[in-house]
Amino acid sequence: MAQVEDDEKSKDGEQESDEIRFQFSFEKRHEDSTKIIKPVLQVSRLDTVFSRTLEFDVGTLDGDPLGEAQAINVPHVLSLGDEKLQFALPVRKQMSDRGTRTIFQMIQGWVKSCDERTPGKNAAHCCSLNPTTPTRLIDVSEAPQKLRLVNTGGKAHAAYAALSYCRGDTEPLQTTRQSLAQHMDDIAITKLPWMFLDAVKTARWLNVKYLWIDTLCIIQDDEEDREHETARMQNVFQNSYVTIVPARARCCRDGFLKADNLWNSLATLPVRCENGEKGNMLLTPRRDKLARDDFHTTREPLHERAWTLQEVVLAPRVLIYTHDSVVWKCFCHDKGLVYNSLTGEAFGRDWNGYCASAGLITMRLCPSGRIIQPAVTATMPSFLLLDPGESAKLSRAQARTCQLYRIWEFLVQDYSNRRLTHAADKLPALAGLAAYFQRALNDAYIAGLWKGRFVHELCWTVDTKRAAATTGGAGGASYPAAWRAPSWSWMAVDAPIAFEANRHTTFESHVSRFRCDAAPLVPAAPFSRLRPGAFVDIAGLVLPYDTTEDCRIFFDSGGGCASPAVPNRPELWLLLLATCQTFSSKKRQGNLMPSGSIWGLVLNPTGAEEETFERVGYFTGGWRAAQQFPGNEREVRII
User: Fold this and answer.
1) pTM of the model
2) How does pLDDT run across 468-508, given as a tens digit for each residue?
3) Is residue 552 within a helix (H) or strand (E), and if so which, with residue range?
4) Using CA atoms, how far apart are residues 617 and 600, in angstroms rounded to an integer?
5) Which residue of 32, 48, 625, 635 could cross-link 550, Cys pair, CB 3.0 to 4.6 Å?
């Protein structure tokens, strides 16, 4: 143990000490007998040890005395038998250049390992053999200062890198109808933001001729071109040779080939060397360890953005630049390959550990339709796994379909927690994932919901806890200024959402039939923006709210209200959607004990037409509430 004491005068004039104890483990270097300190730090105050041991990376800056081997000056506390202990702290850099030849050659090795992988159960999914390319790509293969836009027609088979990034508040250099001809001849490299320059450098080092960046490859002021290219977003990222992901950059002005300076962010501890010199020990917490222990997630900026969910989940191979590391992940490797920019170490890292620390979901979607899904973790809830009793009743194909629906709903929940710069992009930013699942499910996509799961997915709720944490308010949803989606779709609200029905073991629908009209604004973009006037006609059991005192209603805009009826809202109606049951682990006479509830929508008349309503919330109730619904069906239209 090495001890650092800080003596202070107490109020009564006596001295009390705050004691910090450091416990290190050691290993010998290969070239000499110097010991290397491994990062284990135990903290105590007044001889009372905290219940948790925190782990830190330790190091020192270049030129510090602690970077040279020297004897420990507290042998009575820290020793290994009779051996006189020496140590040297790893030297850390305040800023690290991740654009060096050495690092790029290491990344080239990762890519080559994947390219040369013998086709097997995973390797065949890493890279499309005959990828169709986006309509336009940036040719980066010419002179160092020469870039130009090329028109592929979407038919050429060429390797390209794609950039997934946060655009930020300011608009980067863009391709417009006016600048298109100029960019086809030359893109002024001096006008590119730092992030784009780093992406060009990375693509060139990987010997990739083409690069895709949305603001340059899509005509930004041409609505038809934007819709056409958005509809192909699934292919853009699934067919990419590699997707470059600057996860810690908040805007395109930020580069990603320089690592952050983290060594001054926590603590600098003075240490007296044996020769009398004063050294400095730098401490930084090990983020992956803290995330595993405490399930504490702080999203990196890129993973807060709505557009980037599909970009990262759909990409077969991602090269992620974090705050201090470079992470490579493809389907060939169960673990991610990591280079730590500050320590200079390269190693395999558990993919779940990175995702937990960065706020990224662990799931990956293969081009073939196979879904790479790790074991349940803190970032992936257990409802994704089918109940054994439920799966026993289904064929293999039915069980896969059911699980695909649940995976979609899980992705939607994550997506709803992310940010959009433009509210109108809520459907387009998920269009690539929708296209993927439409192909996998062979189902009709209806404004963010699936026809084969429609009643189930109508049972979405605003996640009030997360909404309150995001806005600091009451935990309700906000609504875009312009119409975006019908009120029955979660796409209509700006708030984190959850699918309540997934919390229950069984789901029995009380809707006898429904008919939807939710046509796309642009027929060539079926998963993107909607044409105004979308509605659903539902035949089911309807009850005026003021006739029952056994239901609890929750408004999407925030708050809940128990019975009796909501004051001054006698016009509200309740549409019964389903009966849900949850089976507890307690047994009675050999059978599982069910606890049941009803679930439905709270509707408000629009006044425009008779029997036309809009969703304003949802309600729940017990068996007594269910008995109050009349037996005669009624058809209502929800807009």
Assistant:
1) 0.79
2) 777 666 678 899 999 999 999 999 999 999 997 787 778 88
3) strand 551-555
4) 9
5) 625
CA–CA distance, 434 with 234 (Å, rounded to integer)? 9
Contacts with 544 (C-beta within 8 Å, 6 or more apart), sequence order: 570, 572, 573, 574
Element (H, E) at 36: strand 35-37
Identity of residue 50: F
Contacting residues for 409 by C-beta, under 8 A, at least 6 apart: 457, 499, 502
DSSP 204-259: HHTT--EEE-HHHHS-TT-HHHHHHHHTTHHHHHHT-SEEEEETT-SSTTS-SSEE
Helical segments of 447-519, H only: 454-458, 464-471
What backbone torsions phi and psi does residue 622 show, to the nearest 5 degrees? -95, -165
d(CA 424, CA 529): 8
Query: Angle at which helices 101-115 and 194-205 pack, to 10 degrees?
Result: 60
Distance from C-alpha of 571 to C-alpha of 561, rounded to nearest angstrom: 15
CA dihedral 206, 212, 215, 221 (to 10 degrees): 160
In this structure, what token pair is assigned to residue 74?
A: 């507290």
Rounded Cα distance between 296 and 373, Å, is 21
pLDDT in tens, 52-79: 455 666 777 778 887 777 665 444 434 4
**What's the rounded mean pLDDT across residues 272-276?**
77
First to last CA, the chain: 69
Q: In what order do the strands lie in the sheet with 346-350?
A: 148-151, 136-139, 210-212, 160-163, 242-246, 318-321, 325-329, 335-340, 346-350
Q: How far is CA 342 from CA 261, 286, 292, 441, in A?
A: 9, 13, 22, 45
318-321 and 242-246 as β-strands: parallel, antiparallel, unpaired?
parallel
Residue 180's Cβ-count burial label (10 Å; 0-12, 13-18, 19+) is middle
Cβ atoms of 323 and 102 within 8 Å: the answer is no
Collapsed DSSP state (helix, strand, coil) of residue 279: strand
Assigned token pair, 533? 């006037």
> Do the Cβ atoms of 496 and 467 come closer than 8 Å?
yes
CA 389 to chain centre: 31
Q: What gap in Å lies between CA 481 and CA 1, rounded to an integer?
A: 62
462 with 477: CB under 8 angstroms?
A: yes
